[in-house]
Amino acid sequence: MKKIRLVLFYFLPAVLILIAVSVIMTRSSRSRHEFISGMVETKHVDISSKIPGRVSTLLVREGDYVKKGDTLAQLESKEMAAKVEQARGAMRAAEAKSHLAMNGARPQEKKAAYSLYQQAKAQFDILDKTRTRLQKLFSDSVISVQEHDQIEAQFIAAREQMDAAKERSDMAEEGARYEDRDAAKSVFYQAQNAYNEAIAYMEELSLTSPLYGEVEKIVTDPGEVIGSGYPVITLIDTSDMWVILQIKENEMGKFRKGAVFTGTVPALDNIQQKFSVTYISPMADFATWRPTNQKGDFDVRTFEIHLRPVGALPALRAGMTVNFQM
């Protein structure tokens, strides 16, 4: 009897301790499985320029809210400004040549060409009358053959000069040929598009917001030279946030697209908010959870699940934790 008491005295507390530890571990395990924690994420947008330049002015600070179209920063590029002026000069020169081809000669040139034609025509008319009179005298053998041939040659030369003057006058009135006009117009359009391209690149020096959001980070400072595509400012879209969960496939029984869960946000005084499943996708192999290598076990993949708030929750921020009770 005494031995039994000794056994109970020494071993009963140990047994009670083991039972207590087992109960605590069981409850802890249940507690761990009853809640799944996720992280709030949002869309990040890097604001950059297509062309290199020097940061001239920053118009926002980290934490500022911006609207779509707001100017965030201004860059400067003397090289780009020179290219714009070069393109503008080429466009103006091509435009002037196009107008010259379309409008033809100046009024003074047209008037001068017409006057030369009238002079040649008057000379021809005089020689025509003289030729007619001398033709009768030649028929009556009053003048020699040589005199007749001379007046005939002068008449032909005057007629050719009149025709040439008439052609020059008509050309001055009509202007350039259709092909020349079309070519001049095409050169002008080409120069105009080159100028528009230079202006488009120049507008890239002014960085504007593509969305309504918040300035998360300013990467560069005024005076720094940045390359093409290098981010100057990072924005976050505060209107579109979601919670990311990583769930093993053997625990995905309740997770279906459209399913609604209630989450608790510790950072917002444990406020409760409904979230809807909007995205389910397997993660990469390096994120796959694998069990111990036991006979008969299979590899278990991990899935990434996105849940978006059902209704507005303005105070929700990226990086906050959301706990879901399963």
Question: Can you describe what's shown?
Answer:
The strands form 2 sheets. Strands 1-8-11-10-9-12 form a 6-stranded antiparallel barrel. The longest helix has 33 residues, at 2-34. The protein has 3 domains: 35-44 and 237-325, Efflux pump adaptor protein, beta barrel domain (Elongation Factor Tu (Ef-tu), domain 3, Beta Barrel); 45-75 and 206-235, OB fold (Dihydrolipoamide Acetyltransferase, E2P) (Beta Barrel), CATH 2.40.50; 86-200. Helix 2 (78-103) packs antiparallel against helix 5. The chain is rod-shaped. It is 45% helix and 27% strand. Strand 9 and strand 10 form a beta hairpin. With 326 residues, it is of the alpha+beta class.
Our count of helices gives: 5
**Beta-strand proportion:** 25-35%
Number of domains: 3
Please mark out the parts with pLDDT under 50 across 5 or more consecutive residues, or reply none: none
Neighbour order of strands in the largest sheet: 1-8-11-10-9-12
Helix content: 40-55%
Q: In one word, what is the shape?
A: rod-shaped
Structural class: alpha+beta
The oligomeric status of these chains comes to single chain
Got a strand count? 12
Query: Which value, in Å, is the CA radius of gyration?
Result: 47 Å
Query: Averaged pLDDT, please?
Result: 82
Distance between the termini: 52 Å
Instruction: Name the helix and strand elements from N-terminus to C-terminus, one letter apiece.
Output: HEEEEHHHHEEEEEEEE
Largest sheet: 6 strands, antiparallel, barrel
